[in-house]
Structures
1.
Amino acid sequence: MTVAAIGKKKLMPATVFTGFFSNFFLSSVSSNQSASVTGQHNGRMYSNHYCNHPKFAFSDEGVSGLSLHGLVYFSPSYRYFSSAGSPTILKQARNPSMLAEELENALDEQRLEDAMQGYEHFKQLEGFPRKSLVSRLINVLAHSGDSKWLEKAYAVVLSIVNEKKQRQLFDQEALTQLCLRLASAQMPVPASTILRTMVDMEEYPSVNFWSTVVTHMVKTYNGACLASEIVIDMCYFFKDGRVDPRKRSNQPLLSMKPNTEAFNIALNGSLAFGMTRKAEELLELMTRVGVKADANSIALMAQIYESNGRREELKKLKRFIDEIPGMLDHHYQQYYNSLLTAHLKFGDLVAASELILDMLKRAKAARNSLVAAKSVLATISKGSKGYATPMEDGKEHNCSPMPFKAEKLQAQSLVEVSSHGELVSFENRILIPNHKAYAKLVKGYLDTNRINDLAEFLVKVHREEGPVSMENSISAQVIDACVAMDWLDQAHDIIDEMNAAEIPVGIGVYSSLLKAYCKAHRPMEVSTLLKEVRKAGLQLDGSCYDALIESRFANKDLYGAVGLFKEMREAKVSSFSNSCQSQINEVAKESKPILVARLLDEINDNQQVAVGTHDWNSVIHFFCKAHLMNDAQKAYKKMTALGYHPNTHTFHSLIHGYSTSGGMYQEITMLWADMRRRASAFPESGVNPLNFDQELLDTVLYNFVRGAYFARALEVISMMEQQKMFIDKFKYTQVILIQGERGSGGLDNPSSALLKYHLRTRE
């Protein structure tokens, strides 16, 4: 480039190099032998030593012999000197307006690579662009939908946050769009960080927005962990009536308050990935924030309380459920299933029996109501009048003062209750216990040798059952199941109790038991049962006669065999051939009754937790919730002394109790040592190894960080990393910062520094 070429541009005087500046340049040359001459004017030398200033850039283009009457002129486009040991040169360096214009053009044309380069160039030369340009860059990158550009947009946000510029450069609309796009792309960590950043900026997102973000997040394990933490963070502002809704200044904050749907989403996500203790924490906050539960919440509560062994909490809910109209029963299928499961887990067979009978009574009433409704409809269809619906009198009938919103029953529930009805089925719009429920209950009675109680229960079931034949009744199926399991004496005892209660027993029940006695070669019991059959006036079938005759022959009782054959002939009952008999046996083997199959499943299921463990966990949880930690510790020691093995629920209750009882972190440290010892135990030692889960370790880590036990916190982090568990880095970083602001001791020790580094570098 020549001087003439430069002269064609508009030149403006920039600096007159005289006096001090001339001496500065001359001294620079004399003090730096490596400096090269960039220009000469009136005998003055200019050195590239000055051009090492960070505001100067270099290029190989330039001019030589520049002499402009003692003045150095700069064009707006030629602001910086340059030299590379070649003739005098100047570099074209753009002004901010030109850089901003190029960045805008790149965004308009969707040239994302050029836009990012332009942004970085502007940032290096002038700092961050103006607010509108930054917001537009974030919006364009977010709307691309590509994970690469979403990460770039997230990096832009983080860089501004780290420079403490967020209030000046962020637009809430840009952050909301980016947060939603990150969540929908299954990038929960960046999405949660931006959501938390918005709250820190007091740009409070509405509950409709952040609950939508949470809905996307709960589809993965890490996202579900973060979703529950976000709801907990939101509840912090509103629990225990901290915010006055009457003040107009609080309206932006109140728009962020969690609602029922937001809680349900987080609860459902926690349940889906087995984080039941975190879900229970959310339920407690739900009450403190003042959010009412709906039908979905009740189903979720039931699963949470059942998983955590909170049977008393389940029983408290029943008084509200009982007031629900029968037409809404299907929304509470999960509740009945969970309550029945809890009773059976605790070995409370009486409560389980009462619940089943209560369900049968409700089902019977619902059937009668259905019959009555059909008759009313038939009458109306014939032209009759005078039947009004409950709402036609102009009054709104409130059936129950419930602490939840029963009217909020969505067509598409968040909880697929039908898939969780293991013990309770929904058939013909009626809730009824299924065969698995009866199998669990029958096995419980038989294991404890409570035959009389079982028979009494079956008698009550028979009276509450709908119109069904004796052969298909529950009592008949239970007796058949006992016979199939070779519990012949128990089956006979149940028949005797049924007869004593004047409940008729079908011939099929007697036949199956007679054949089983014959097969077991028990002639005394056969004779006794035959007398009962004849006394009841029942007629045996041909297969039963065949079994009896073969049994008599096997016992060499020829007269008895002939007598039975004669009786069969007189009754005109046909005998089955051997081939036909064998075919029937094969069919019977292939088509086992449902209740028999369920009983086999129960017997083969050896993964049940000891009933005593559930009881002790309930006791310890009660003491911890009441902050009676001395009693809780005594109960824990008594539990282990009696040979019961504490599980994750036990330790979670104890840690939560120590934490909320004045921060007893030293006791948590001692408990951690016991937990590690149990986790490394061998089964041969008589101690069941403790299997850590993410919830328990996260609770331990949180308390160690809060208590400034950083060495122990590093142990927990190491264990979580080995098991590839998720760690909420943002949460623990914030806890450390808060501890530093409060002046907590121990934050400057090596363990604290190592913990900070660990949280900063971990992905």
2.
Amino acid sequence: MALGPKSDIFHLDQNSKTWICSSGLPSDVTIEVGDVSFQLHKFPLVSRSKMLEKLIGDSSDDEGKITFEDEKRPFAKLHDLPGGPKIFLLIAKFCYGVKLEVNSTNVVPLRCASEYLQMTEEYGEGNLIDHTESYFNVVFDTWIDTLKALESCEEMVEYAEKLDIVSRCIESLALKACTFDKGLFSGSSTESKDNPFATVIWNGIQTTSTNQDWWYDDVSKLSLHLYRRFILAVESRNLDQERIAGSLMYYAKKYLPLLGRESTFSSGNLSSSSSSSLYLNSDQKILLEEIVDLLPSQKQVVPTKLLLRLLRTAMILHCNPLCIGNLERRIGMQLDQASIEDILIPNMGYSSETLYEIDCVQRMLDHFMVAEQDQEESEVTESSFNGDNDDDDDDDELIGKSRSLAPMTMVANLVDNYLAEVASDVNLKLEKFQSLAATVPDYARPMDDGIYRAVDIYLKAHPWLTDLDRELIIRLLDCQKLSLEASTHAAQNERLPLRFIVQVLFFEQLRLRTSVAGCLYVSDNYNSQPHLSSSMVLPESGNMHLLTTRENDRRLMAEDMRGRVSELEKECLTMKKEINKLVKTKGVSWNSLCKIFGLGLRLKSKPREGCASSNDRDRKKVPPPSRIRDVPNGKNQDQENGELVD
């Protein structure tokens, strides 16, 4: 907007830093703004400004005058003028009727300065206050001009707040950000379809993206105070929380160098990049705390990986406990989406005992368990209101329960892997290890191989543990949930207590017996097939080839079963030898072992000659081949050592 018809009559004296008005008349007043002086005339100034009229009138006496070229003239100081000398020059031009350009960059300083100088309609119709106020309607029509006007408020926030300029700019920007629509862009729709990243202009908005994150970079140029007010404004207008979270993460990455570089955590380099030169470490701490406070409360709107990076940065910058606790709670609610690399947070404490933040992971795990429990209770409450359910509803409920176990199982696997990583830390206390492992319920672990691996690493890194401590840590394991590979390793692990090793061998033997019995049952059914088929009528010649093929398949299946049974017998024999070796090494008998571990012991005595009838002999069970091969010197192994039974 252009104001004033006259040409420019002001020039600057570089030596004295003085603006001189060359209107043909000698100046009769001097105005000092900052370190710059203005040699002007009384009448144009006092006819437009109430404050200048008062200042020049008060300085007309001899005490307020200065000597200039042997002549005393009024002198006034305006060091508190918003905008400084640059804006006062524009105001002087307006008072003299000189042409000046009002734009989105200087309209806010001009409005604040005109208010400061009291340039109201009482001192001339169409005064500067009226002109600048009317121009705001033009500024608020476009995104770019509104943003520039808001940025110009940074230097004079106090004056802009009093005039409600900041609030009006923020509300205008919030309205445009919330009502964004791709269809409102000008230009060919075909071009936007072919090139979604083509530069388009809509309502003064120039962007290279048609996504709804177009305003992220623009508002990131605002100071933290103004940016916070903008986020609160769009949140009050019910903007999608994912877009709010996206803007916050964009702002945080721009000014927090530790958040954008993963290598910083491992290298310990805390230097700031050029993009964050505006913020020192103390300012970054305040910035991070504000960002965390502004994060939406909705679950999963911020990726867990980014939340964990925020948590690491907060620990490095030593943010307040409220900020760290807020991040831990948010991460805990979606801990099933975390990875082992993200939760391995180095200990940033000055007097840290452990290498990693074990307590932090414990708190996040506690938050996850509380959230899961609350969700389960809410589902139970909801199902209680729907008392009458059909069979289809029951099936849906079963499917829902199986899905609800997935996050818990993922967290259990995450915790087991985390324990395996931190177990080698010699400063890790047994109580912390047990507490973290026991927080996960037993049903969340289908197999105990992961926790067994962590326990084994911990025992290896802490050889000074007492037998009582080993017994305590081994209670975390369920030997019946170990795989065959883990059971084999445990049976040969000298770091484990003897009681646990015997239990592993016993349950593995029981498992093998069950497998052998099942294979023998299938084999017996196969052997009865020829007798059954012989009693049947012979098929026609056309189906003979099909029956022959089926018979060959059954024969191959039976041979495969026999091979598996043979392997199981060999494994059973190996386990028996390990038990005997263990008994001989520890110097205890089978009877004492069974009494210690509570296992049933049955001794088979030799049959007396002539006492058993022929029917009794027919009912005796034939020992498996592995037991027959294990009899030394013609003696029965069961007679010598006894047999473990369930």
